[in-house]
Design goal:
It is an enzyme of class 2 (transferase). Its EC number is 2.7.1.26, 2.7.7.2. 29% of the residues lie in helices and 29% in strands. The chain is an alpha/beta fold and 317 residues long. It folds into 2 domains: 157 residues, HUPs (Rossmann fold); 126 residues, Riboflavin kinase-like (Elongation Factor Tu (Ef-tu), domain 3). The protein has a 6-stranded parallel beta sheet, covered by helices on one side. A 6-stranded antiparallel β-barrel has the order 11-12-15-14-13-16. Strands 6-7 form a two-stranded antiparallel ribbon. Helix 7 packs antiparallel against helix 8. The longest helix has 23 residues. The protein is elongated and about 70 Å long. The protein starts with a strand and ends with a helix.
Length: 317
């Protein structure tokens, strides 16, 4: 997959671009609803013998449009988004810089510049996709802006139960620790990756060595607590437990939560390595213990419960 970063005005030359079927949207999370939009474009590209593309934006529009929001955390930060789109068979990814200039374009200018001039011949979007200044362009009027130079398919809302699958709903589930439900809507486990950094080695002293992860500040973290996780490292997958929190038993003044992972049945040094964490189940909230002994007692229970959890999942119960 080729990744192409664009801003307004871009300098790509129409005649040098392949005819393309594209999905357009912000696609944070690339949940089951987004996947339907993207797969429709990929399948259409194959049947028309074209390239497939995803057109997305960075940063999130709210960073530009809302004065009180300086920084957004994403269910799928850019790198994660790229990995998933590659797996979905997308040929090219256009990332458009969302800034004041882009937000003030008239709908027709936006379509001329970022659809027609990118040689998009077939466009797929969700029913609620909007474009142009103040979102005046939408899927009801896009045919007027297409100048009959491309076809449009609109994907209706995808539901789970009675509710639309949305990034907002997934964020709420993650914040409340309902990781299983969030994963169901994503169609895969939530993934957060990080580099193992030097910690205070207290885990090793109590018999549970942990890898402390340095996480991209763009990654949305779930609710504080203890989780059943799987750890992907060098083409191997391990089971383990992750503590996301402030480590209150030993630390009083931590500003930012940290992620500490104990990988079951693994003892090698991981400093400087990148681990990919799959978050499978919220087990309990973070607790401040009166002693290291009480903490060890609880960790032993956590390990037993998490091993049982993965055992029952693997056995299909």
């Amino acid at each position: 997959m080729r990744t192409i970063k664009l801003a307004y005005p871009h300098t790509l030359i129409l005649d040098e671009l392949p005819e393309t079927a594209a999905a357009i949207g912000f696609f944070d999370g690339i949940h089951k609803g987004h996947q339907k939009v993207i797969r429709t474009a990929v399948n259409e590209a194959k049947s028309r013998n074209m390239e497939s593309a995803v057109i997305t934006f960075h940063p999130h529009p709210s960073v530009v449009l809302k004065k009180d929001i300086q920084h957004v955390q994403y269910i799928t930060p850019l790198r994660e988004k790229q990995e998933i789109l590659q797996q979905l068979g997308v040929d090219r990814l256009y990332i458009i810089t969302f800034n004041k200039e882009l937000s003030s374009l008239e709908p027709q200018t936006f379509i001329d510049h970022f659809i027609i001039n990118l040689n998009i011949k077939f466009l797929v979007a969700g029913f609620d996709y909007t474009y142009g200044h103040k979102g005046k362009g939408n899927m009801q009027v896009i045919h007027e802006h297409s100048r009959r130079l491309f076809d449009v398919t609109v994907i209706d809302k995808v539901q789970s139960g009675d509710l639309k699958i949305s990034s907002t709903r997934i964020r709420e589930l993650l914040k409340s620790g309902q990781i299983g439900e969030a994963n169901e809507l994503l169609g895969r486990p939530l993934v957060i990756r990080g580099i193992v950094k030097e910690g205070d080695k207290r885990g090793r002293e109590i018999g549970y060595p942990t890898a402390n992860l340095e996480i991209d500040s763009d990654a949305l973290l779930p609710k504080i607590g203890v989780y059943a996780v799987k750890v992907r490292f060098k083409n191997e997958v391990y089971e383990g437990m992750a503590s996301l929190g402030y480590n209150p038993t030993f630390t009083l003044d931590r500003d930012e939560p940290i992620i500490e992972v104990n990988i079951f049945d693994y003892n090698n040094d991981l400093y400087g390595e990148e681990l990919v964490l799959e978050w499978h189940q919220y087990m309990r909230e973070e607790i401040k213990f009166n002693s290291a002994e009480k903490l060890i007692e609880q960790i032993e229970k956590d390990e037993e419960q998490i091993r049982n959890y993965f055992g029952s999942v693997c056995n299909g119960h």
